[in-house]
Amino acid sequence: MARGKKRDLLQVVMSDFNEAADLLHLDANIRVRLSHPRRIIIVSCPINKDDGTVESFEGYRVQYNIARGPAKGGIRFHPEVDLDETIALAALMTWKCAVVNIPYGGAKGGVQVDPHKLSMTEIENLTRRYTWEISPMIGPEKDIPAPDMNTSAKHMAWVMDTYSIIKGYSVPGVVTGKPISIGGSEGRQEATGRGVVFSIIDAAQELGIDLSTQTAVVQGFGNVGSVAAKLLAKTGCKIIAVSDENGGIYSSKGLDIENVSAYVAEHEYLKGYPGADEISNAELLALDCDILIPAALGGQITKENAADVKASMIVEGANGPLTNEADKILNDKKVFIIPDILANAGGVVVSYFEWVQDIQAFFWHEKEINDKLRVIMRNAYHSVRNIALEKKVTNRQAALMLGIGRVAECARVRGLRP
User: Which of 158, 101, 167 is nearest to 140 (CA)?
Assistant: First the structure.
C-alpha cells in the first residue's frame, strides 16, 4: 500500500503489488500488464491571476487499469502532487475498486499547486482549465473524477459544467461528489467515514468486542475523520481525542463530537476548544486507546513511533498512514489492522452509486444508499478476512490479493489485443 514518505510512494506500491503477485502465483505475463499504467496525460494549466498576470501549473491524469470498467479516481490540488504519486494512487484505486467489487478501473489526477495561495476565482479558473485539458480522457464511459485532497463538491460542479460546455449538453455522470442539485448523491459526503465505521463494526463482531466498552482516537478531523468520529460515537464508543493539522484535543472522559464539530464549523480549527487538553499529533498517536483511526496524511506511523502505539485496532481512514516498517512492527505486536483499500473504500462505493443514478436519471433515498453501502462493505470485509485466515497472511496482504486477483482475472479473460 501507499505507506512511506511521499518520495517512496510509487516504489512502495509496486513492492506491495509484487508481494501480493507472488502470494497469488500470478502469471508472469499478467504481472507485466498490471505493473504499468494504461494511460497518462501531463498538461499545462495557465490561468489569469487576479492581479492581471498569467501563471501556469502542471497537472496530471493517470488511468492505471480499465479491465474491469471505466477509470475512477479523485482530483487533488497540492504543492507536492507529481507524476509518481499520481501513478501510485491510481494503482491503489484500481485495487480498491476491485476489493469492493464495483465495475471500475483505477485513476487519479491532480495539479501541483498550493490552493491556499489562490483566490476562489483563481481556483475556479484552474479547475476549469485543468478539466478542459484532460477532457479527451474523461467521460461517463471512460473516466469519472471525484473530489480528493483540497477539492470538494464545488470543484466537481466546475468540472461537470466545463465538460458539459465542451459536449454542448449537461453530462452529470462525468464526475461524482457533486452538489445534489446537479446530480450528486445523498450520502456521498459521509460515505468514506461511514465505511470506516462499518469496517470497525464488522471487526468488532468478528472479534467479540462490545464497542460501548471501547475508546477511540481519530487523527484528522476533516471529512473522513469527523464523520467517522460522529458515527462511531453513536455506537457507544468513547472518542477521547481528535486532531487536525494544527494539533489535537484530548479528554479522558470522552469528547462530545457533535459539540466539537460545531466548534470547528465556527472556528475552522480545533485549537482553543474548551473543556479539553491540547495535545500534539505525535502525542495523540501514542494515547492509551482501543481503536486508532489515522485519517490525515500518509506516513504518520513510522518505525520511530510504531512501538509507542497502544491501540489494539488500527483502521486506516487515510491512504497509507503506516510505513512499511511500522506495518511490520504493529503486525508483530498482533495489532488488528484494517487496511486503507478496504477501510476507506466507502467513498468510491457511493461515487459508483452516484454515477449509476446519473446514468439512469433516477435517484435513491439516503437510507437505500446507506443500506447498499453496508452490504458491499460487509461483503468486502469478510472476503478479505477469509483470505487472511485461509492463507495465513495479514489483512493488508489479503486485501491486495483480493483486489489484484480480480483485476488479473479480468485481464486474463479479456486477453491481449491488439
Answer: 167
Considering the domain architecture, whether residues 163 and 207 belong to the same structural domain is answered as no
Range of the domain at 224: 191-343
pLDDT at 5 over 70: no
Burial 88-102 (b: 16+ CB within 10 A, else e): bbbbbbbbbbbbbeb
More confident residue, 12 or 34: 34
Residues 142 and 277 in one domain: no
- What are the cell numbers at 150? 483540497
Helix (H) or strand (E) holding 405: helix 395-414
Which residues lie closer than 8 Å to 320 by C-beta, 6 or more apart? 1, 2, 3, 4, 9, 12, 298, 299, 340
Preceding omega of 274 cis (within 30 degrees of 0)? no
User: Average pLDDT, whole number, for the chain?
Assistant: 94
Q: Are residues 140 and 204 in the same domain?
A: no
199 and 330: one domain?
yes
Residues in CB range of 113: below 8 A, 6 or more apart: 57, 77, 78, 79, 81, 126
Active site residues: 108
Tell me the whole-structure pTM to 2 decimals.
0.92
Same domain membership, residue 311 and residue 220: yes
**Total domain count, the chain:** 2
pLDDT in tens, 310-326: 999 999 998 888 888 89
Question: Cα angle vertex 299, ends 297, 304, to 5°?
Answer: 135
| Dihedral over Cα of 237, 100, 389, 88: its sign | negative
Distance CA 284, CA 292 (A): 9
pLDDT at 1 over 70: no
Q: Which of 306, 328, 343 is the last residue of a domain?
A: 343
Tell me, yes or no, whether 177 lies in a domain: no
Contact partners, residue 77, CB within 8 Å, separation at least 6: 110, 111, 113, 115, 123, 126, 149, 150, 151
What are the grid coordinates assigned to 63, written together? 488511468
